[in-house]
Specification:
Blueprint lengths: L1 E4 L6 H13 L4 E3 L18 H13 L2 E6 L2 H10 L3 E4 L1 H4 L2 H10 L6 E5 L6 H13 L5 E5 L16 H10 L5 E3 L1 H5 L5 H10 L4 E5 L17 H10 L10 H41 L7 H17 L4 H20 L11
Bound molecules: phosphoenolpyruvate and manganese (II) ion.
Length: 347
């Protein structure tokens, strides 16, 4: 599933020219921003309601479905009146609970579906909260879009890809269609393909890609917009794996691997529980001897040893580090809650 179209609707000609070319490629969903949230004042802030008529023409002339970004209830109402099929909540708006609430209340009853982009800041709770607000307001058709999180450290992309956040959101909302927006994530034409491929490899359901009939003249996000021709080449080159297959041999093999994983997961949990039990005993011992819980040198030795062992088994240092950091935090937490008697706590 591809949603494509310019960052902003600029003129009727630009909208229709782009839409006709995209339609030729078989793309069914057209996007164009009308109300543009811009970082600096004085930048092109979109054509506003005037563009709704152009979107309507795209529907009529190209037979496409159309969508645009909304950041307040009045946008939702104007879109519904103009026959817009879908709206999305932009990253800056998802970060604002007041606006999300306002939009959530305006949406149900319009029949429009809504995609919720991740908030600009890496906060899964704000993203989740936005979905919950929509659901509480009885909005039925909801989807998610990963467009990367703003970050001080990101050197290459415009926003940081957080695929682990995608996996987490997917498991929170397995029933929601999940898209990626490689254009805002990468910020440059040359990154759009690799990000799109990654999204497909992760089994995401679709892509929202910015495409403009003349990107170098675009009034916003000029560097990241593809011409329809370049978009066609990109889409042709994407490898999309089947989400599932009926192949009996594959299914059998997969089931076998999954059974082994399930058994290993139990072993891991057993080992963690035994480790925690020992940790509690150590905690009680430290308490009776009035010794502080955190012993940095000891932990340093433990970590070095375990990273070395992990390395020998083909696990990256970073991975082992992260896992054992969590285990250590868990142990320290547990030791902090040791009751005041010198005996270890029993459930
Ligand atoms: C957009 O899709 O044009 C847009 C402004 O996106 P984001 O909210 O992801 O920055
Ligand atoms: Mn844009």
């Amino acid at each position: 599933m591809i949603i494509a179209g310019p960052c902003s609707a600029e003129t009727r000609e630009q909208v229709l020219d782009t839409a006709l070319q995209l339609r030729e490629l078989g793309i069914e969903w057209f996007r164009a921003g009308l109300w543009k949230p811009r970082t600096y004042p004085g930048c092109f802030e979109g054509v506003g309601e005037k563009g709704l008529q152009w979107l309507f023409e795209v529907k009529r002339q190209c037979g496409m479905k159309v969508c645009t970004e909304v950041s307040r209830a009045s946008h939702v109402e104007a879109c519904a009146k103009a026959g817009v099929d879908m709206v999305w909540i932009g990253a800056r708006t998802t970060a604002n609970p007041f606006l999300v609430q306002e939009i959530a209340q305006a949406l149900p009853g319009t029949g429009m579906s809504v995609f919720v982009k991740n908030p600009v800041n890496p906060d899964l709770e704000a993203w989740t909260g936005a979905v919950e607000r929509l659901r509480t307001a009885s909005q039925k058709k909801i989807g998610l879009i990963h467009r990367g999180f703003s970050s001080f450290n990101e050197k290459i992309y415009r926003n940081s890809a957080a695929w682990d956040a995608v996996v987490q959101m997917r498991s929170r909302f397995p029933e929601l269609p999940f898209y990626c927006d490689p254009s805002h994530l990468g910020g440059k034409v040359e990154y759009v393909r690799e990000i799109s491929q990654k999204a497909m490899d992760l089994g995401l359901d679709g892509l929202m890609i910015e495409s403009h009939c003349n990107p170098s003249a675009a009034l916003s996000d000029s560097a990241q917009q593809l011409t329809p021709a370049r978009l066609a080449a990109l889409l042709d080159s994407l490898e999309v794996r089947a989400k599932d297959t009926e192949d009996a041999k594959y299914t059998l093999e997969l089931e076998e691997f999954r059974a082994q994983i399930d058994a290993l997961d139990e072993t891991i949990v057993d080992a963690l529980a035994s480790r925690m039990e020992l940790s509690r005993k150590i905690g009680a011992l430290k308490k009776t001897h009035n010794v502080s819980i955190i012993q940095a040198r000891r932990w340093d030795t433990v970590m070095k040893r375990i990273v070395r062992i992990g390395n020998g088994r083909g696990l990256s240092e970073d991975f082992v580090h992260r896992v054992f950091d969590e285990i250590h935090k868990g142990s320290v937490n547990e030791q902090e809650t040791i009751p005041d008697c010198s005996e270890p706590r029993h459930k």
